[in-house]
Amino acid sequence: SSKLEVPEALTFDDVLLRPKESRVEPDEADLTSNVSKSVEVSVPILSAAMDTVTESDMAIAMARHGGLGVLHRNMTIDQMVEEIDRVKSADELIIPHEAVVTADPEMTVREVDEVMAREGVGGAPVVNTNGEVLGIISSTDIRPHLEVNEDDQVTEAMTDEVVTADEDVEAREAFELMYEHKIERVPVVDDENLLVGLVTMQGILQRREYGEAVRDEEGRLRLGVAVSPFEMDRAEAADEAGADILFIDTAHAHNRNVIDGAKEIESAVEADVVVGNVGTREAAAELVDFADGIKVGIGPGSICTTRVVSGAGMPQITAVSQVADVASEHGVPVIADGGIRYSGDAIKAVAAGADAVMLGSYFAGTEEAPGRVVTMNGKKYKQYRGMGSVGAMKSGDSDRYLKEEPEEDDEYVPEGVEAATPYKGPLKSELHQLAGGMQSGMGYVGAATIPEFKERSEFVRISPAGQAESHAHDVVITDEAPNYSPN
Ligand code: RVP
């Protein structure tokens, strides 16, 4: 019957990139790409919105190293706002007024010394009750050999000719000021000399360390935040707190209610709105009119059992390619989400049409992922679980896989499992391997940029024999490579 004349759908292991003439050295390949219409990243890699993958620590590390973290939504709105604040203030050039440790002019030298020690800072603007900057005191001003009496008022020991900067100060200018005056910190003041914030040398040097960091117009790290299509207050709170992209986070976005909710959110917020997940052309066609990005993946995730439990899904290379066919015509970026085990999978996803990739299991074992390290049989692991697993559904108000909370465990119909993944150390080296492997792929295809690669790359279809040949075979591995483990 015609029902059995079925189309074929492919995934990562079914294809390889066809090598082509090249003048591109891998380390010169430029990975700059777009995650959504207005957010560009240095490396097109996102960490998944899962409660064992992305909280503020992960989001900070991802953005510092050129990618983007997407905060999960298994937390209260208040917690979410706090997490967003942590990311947004992590590398701020100007530490805002509320967060600056200040000294009161009435304080004694001893009191100020104690405050600075307690807060772990080396200096503090001296500010009167109106918020006016009277001077600045640093721990070097009050060392005993300077013959300052501990009971003196701070105003006697402080520097009162303060070097200040105004609100639109930039990093270079602040650096030069500090260099010229041999100082470590510069209060930022408004026209009336009221304290607005503080720039520190330490802060500037830290920012310099992360040359590829993904930042907003104000120089703050960028992040994405997962929201439900049915929770306007969460979406608005995330937007207000400074989320750069809201990810409408569903397991099946080709659903009328989801689309209506997503549209409503899109028109209420300033942030870009990425909608997902989908896996077909028709779904993409519904989203291109309003979405700033489309996320693809129905069942490819390592901890995902959707395809087995529901019988529905779409192998990821075909899913990405179908969605990208439609989205690219409308200039809407596509994110390939789930199923990526190796850097080669990531760059295959880009060849299929993705502008960026999202990974869960790859990052769940890193130091920056939430959760603690456990040891089993002498090996270190971290917990990793699907957001549709019983554990994740129970611990949050997540409605991605669930509308109403059951009372008994066995009433859940999960679409994910709870697992453990080898502990991997800091994110930085994982990201380095992933990005480096993607650049190698670009080298084999002869493409210097992501858009060029999407255009130039071609697939060959491979057999199970070809697949076996691809992996290390007929040997016993003696020294594990940092970017490869069989299975
Ligand atoms: P992976 O990188 O293969 O571990 O996949 C991560 C992705 O899996 C997530 O970004 C999400 O789209 C999907 N996911 C998360 N939870 C579940 C589930 O419980 N089924 N699936």
Automatic annotation (TrEMBL):
<feature type="binding site">
    <location>
        <begin position="337"/>
        <end position="339"/>
    </location>
    <ligand>
        <name>IMP</name>
    </ligand>
</feature>
<feature type="binding site">
    <location>
        <position position="470"/>
    </location>
    <ligand>
        <name>K(+)</name>
    </ligand>
</feature>
<keyword id="KW-0630">Potassium</keyword>
<feature type="binding site" description="in other chain">
    <location>
        <position position="299"/>
    </location>
    <ligand>
        <name>K(+)</name>
    </ligand>
</feature>
<keyword id="KW-0677">Repeat</keyword>
<feature type="binding site">
    <location>
        <position position="415"/>
    </location>
    <ligand>
        <name>IMP</name>
    </ligand>
</feature>
<dbReference type="GO" id="GO:0003938">
    <property type="term" value="F:IMP dehydrogenase activity"/>
</dbReference>
<dbReference type="Pfam" id="PF00478">
    <property type="entry name" value="IMPDH"/>
</dbReference>
<dbReference type="InterPro" id="IPR000644">
    <property type="entry name" value="CBS_dom"/>
</dbReference>
<dbReference type="GO" id="GO:0000166">
    <property type="term" value="F:nucleotide binding"/>
</dbReference>
<keyword id="KW-0658">Purine biosynthesis</keyword>
<dbReference type="InterPro" id="IPR046342">
    <property type="entry name" value="CBS_dom_sf"/>
</dbReference>
<feature type="domain" description="CBS">
    <location>
        <begin position="158"/>
        <end position="214"/>
    </location>
</feature>
<feature type="binding site">
    <location>
        <begin position="360"/>
        <end position="361"/>
    </location>
    <ligand>
        <name>IMP</name>
    </ligand>
</feature>
<keyword id="KW-0560">Oxidoreductase</keyword>
<comment type="similarity">
    <text>Belongs to the IMPDH/GMPR family.</text>
</comment>
<dbReference type="InterPro" id="IPR015875">
    <property type="entry name" value="IMP_DH/GMP_Rdtase_CS"/>
</dbReference>
<comment type="subunit">
    <text>Homotetramer.</text>
</comment>
<feature type="binding site">
    <location>
        <begin position="384"/>
        <end position="388"/>
    </location>
    <ligand>
        <name>IMP</name>
    </ligand>
</feature>
<feature type="binding site" description="in other chain">
    <location>
        <position position="301"/>
    </location>
    <ligand>
        <name>K(+)</name>
    </ligand>
</feature>
<feature type="domain" description="CBS">
    <location>
        <begin position="94"/>
        <end position="153"/>
    </location>
</feature>
<feature type="binding site" description="in other chain">
    <location>
        <position position="304"/>
    </location>
    <ligand>
        <name>K(+)</name>
    </ligand>
</feature>
<keyword id="KW-0520">NAD</keyword>
<feature type="active site" description="Proton acceptor">
    <location>
        <position position="400"/>
    </location>
</feature>
<keyword id="KW-0332">GMP biosynthesis</keyword>
<dbReference type="InterPro" id="IPR013785">
    <property type="entry name" value="Aldolase_TIM"/>
</dbReference>
<feature type="binding site">
    <location>
        <begin position="297"/>
        <end position="299"/>
    </location>
    <ligand>
        <name>NAD(+)</name>
    </ligand>
</feature>
<feature type="binding site">
    <location>
        <position position="249"/>
    </location>
    <ligand>
        <name>NAD(+)</name>
    </ligand>
</feature>
<dbReference type="InterPro" id="IPR001093">
    <property type="entry name" value="IMP_DH_GMPRt"/>
</dbReference>
<dbReference type="GO" id="GO:0006183">
    <property type="term" value="P:GTP biosynthetic process"/>
</dbReference>
<feature type="binding site">
    <location>
        <position position="471"/>
    </location>
    <ligand>
        <name>K(+)</name>
    </ligand>
</feature>
<comment type="function">
    <text>Catalyzes the conversion of inosine 5'-phosphate (IMP) to xanthosine 5'-phosphate (XMP), the first committed and rate-limiting step in the de novo synthesis of guanine nucleotides, and therefore plays an important role in the regulation of cell growth.</text>
</comment>
<protein>
    <recommendedName>
        <fullName>Inosine-5'-monophosphate dehydrogenase</fullName>
        <ecNumber>1.1.1.205</ecNumber>
    </recommendedName>
</protein>
<feature type="active site" description="Thioimidate intermediate">
    <location>
        <position position="304"/>
    </location>
</feature>
<dbReference type="Pfam" id="PF00571">
    <property type="entry name" value="CBS"/>
</dbReference>
<dbReference type="InterPro" id="IPR005990">
    <property type="entry name" value="IMP_DH"/>
</dbReference>
<feature type="binding site">
    <location>
        <position position="302"/>
    </location>
    <ligand>
        <name>IMP</name>
    </ligand>
</feature>
<dbReference type="GO" id="GO:0006177">
    <property type="term" value="P:GMP biosynthetic process"/>
</dbReference>
<dbReference type="GO" id="GO:0046872">
    <property type="term" value="F:metal ion binding"/>
</dbReference>
<feature type="region of interest" description="Disordered">
    <location>
        <begin position="465"/>
        <end position="487"/>
    </location>
</feature>
<comment type="pathway">
    <text>Purine metabolism; XMP biosynthesis via de novo pathway; XMP from IMP: step 1/1.</text>
</comment>
<feature type="binding site">
    <location>
        <position position="469"/>
    </location>
    <ligand>
        <name>K(+)</name>
    </ligand>
</feature>
